[in-house]
């Protein structure tokens, strides 16, 4: 067995360089690799391209890297909760590529499968499709136009799991099982932080969501802040 455990987040990201392309797990504020993001802020790497479903909020998640101007380009689906993101985008300081959420997920999945490109109807006829190759296909008796999309190429994937073992096998909990498993598959080098790190052989095989073959480094994180992005309540009748 290969022991993939590293001491902490700082050691895990030691070779992340200026200009790196990062896949970053999470959905809203759930399942964010908080320790890894904090380590990147501390290290000061810059000109990063971050591929993530969203951009966090101003003072949490990828919003911390936006505050310090360490991100050059964001490739995302939903970014409506981050005022600093909006300011940088409108001022031209930040390059932004918005992608339909299903396309974002599939581009990660195809990278994990080793398939360089695929066709999807999502975005055809909109700004999303500008400059992209398209073809007509008949599927289930219906002819449609499809866009060709490319699998993501990245240098590192940063993911967060509930539990993992020394061999890199991961279990995600509830909503944190969102983009994390896909990005773990897609990363050239995948770094996982976990709330609980256990010896290899401890996890039941039927419970593992991401096999250790996809994970290159793993460590136990600390001081997790499990925020709720928007709390909606109703008055009692």
Note down, in words, how this protein is organized.
This protein has 237 residues and is of the alpha/beta class. It folds into two domains: 9-100 and 151-220, Glutaconate Coenzyme A-transferase, CATH 3.40.1080; 117-149, no CATH class. It contains six helices and eleven strands. It has helices spanning 9-12, 34-43, 63-67, 83-91, 101-113, 180-186, and strands spanning 21-24, 48-51, 71-76, 95-98, 117-120, 134-139, 142-150, 156-165, 170-171, 189-198, 217-220. The strands form two sheets. Strands 1, 2, 3, 4, 8, 9, 10 and 11 form an eight-stranded mixed beta sheet that branches. Strands 5-7-6 form a three-stranded antiparallel beta sheet. Strand 3, helix 4 (83-91) and strand 4 (95-98) form a beta-alpha-beta unit. It is globular and about 50 Å long.
Short account of what is shown:
With 237 residues, the protein is α/β, with parallel strands linked by helices. The chain has helices at 9-12, 34-43, 63-67, 83-91, 101-113, 180-186; strands spanning 21-24, 48-51, 71-76, 95-98, 117-120, 134-139, 142-150, 156-165, 170-171, 189-198, 217-220. The longest helix is centred in the middle third of the chain and has 13 residues, at 101-113.
Keywords:
237 residues; 11 strands; 8-stranded mixed beta sheet; Glutaconate Coenzyme A-transferase; alpha/beta; 6 helices; 2 domains; globular; 3-stranded antiparallel beta sheet
């Amino acid at each position: 067995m290969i022991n993939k455990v590293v001491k902490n987040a700082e050691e895990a990201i030691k070779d992340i360089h200026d200009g790196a392309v990062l896949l970053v797990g999470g959905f809203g504020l759930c399942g964010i690799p908080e320790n890894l993001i904090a380590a990147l802020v501390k290290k000061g790497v810059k000109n990063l391209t971050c591929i993530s479903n969203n951009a966090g909020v101003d003072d949490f998640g990828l919003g911390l890297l936006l505050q310090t101007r360490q991100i050059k380009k964001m490739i995302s689906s939903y970014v409506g909760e981050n005022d600093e993101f909006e300011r940088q985008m409108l001022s031209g300081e930040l390059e932004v590529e918005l992608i339909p959420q299903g396309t974002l997920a599939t581009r990660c999945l195809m990278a994990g499968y080793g398939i360089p490109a695929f066709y999807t109807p999502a975005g055809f006829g909109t700004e999303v499709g500008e400059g992209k190759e398209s073809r007509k296909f008949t599927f289930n008796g219906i002819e449609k136009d499809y866009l060709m999309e490319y699998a993501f190429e990245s240098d590192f994937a940063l993911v967060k799991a509930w539990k993992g073992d020394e061999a890199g096998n991961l279990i995600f909990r509830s909503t944190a099982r969102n983009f994390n498993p896909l990005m773990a598959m897609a990363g050239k080098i995948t770094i996982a932080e976990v709330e609980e790190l256990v010896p290899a052989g401890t996890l039941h095989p039927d419970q593992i969501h991401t096999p250790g073959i996809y994970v290159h480094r793993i460590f136990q994180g600390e001081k997790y802040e499990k925020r709720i992005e928007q709390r909606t309540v109703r008055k009692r009748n």
